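Thread: quick sanity check before group meeting

JM: Hey all, I'm pulling together slides for Thursday and realized we never actually wrote out the predicted structure for the chain we discussed last week. Dropping the sequence here so it's in one place. If anyone has concerns about the input, flag it before I start.
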Amino acid sequence: MKNIFSTMLFALLVCFTVNANNYSSMQNIKNTTDTTYTYYDAARNKYVLRGDTLEYTPVKPAESSSGIYDGGKYVKREISGSDKNNIVFLFIKAKASKNAQTGKNIKPNAFVKIEGANRNENFILKAASSINIELKNLLQQLLIN
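JM (edit): ok, ran it. Output follows.
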């Protein structure tokens, strides 16, 4: 009986901790109206979230390391509040994922900037990290649809 009670108490504590962390992350999302989130992929194509606008600025051949690579066409579009929250959540998750970060600003790693009134943060995500892949896929998906 004592083991069952201990197990239930531990499970309750874990649930409370997870919900508190999710609530904290959601609070961070609500306070992002003046924050700009920038993601540079391996080729240094630039994705910028500012307010409800997502912007993609591709690398042109003259700017690429090969002189040939073309990142495509410039795109700027309004996104829904829920899509914005999903992007911001992934930026926050990426910032918190210290194991996914590196000090090496080399290809194929991604460079991330979070800038606002009282914050200016930069970090580099490892190319193969799951959060980097998730963030890049979401940004690309929202620009296509």
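AS: nice. The first strand starts at residue 36 and ends at 40. Confidence is low (pLDDT under 50) at residues 5-31.
JM: adding both to the slides.
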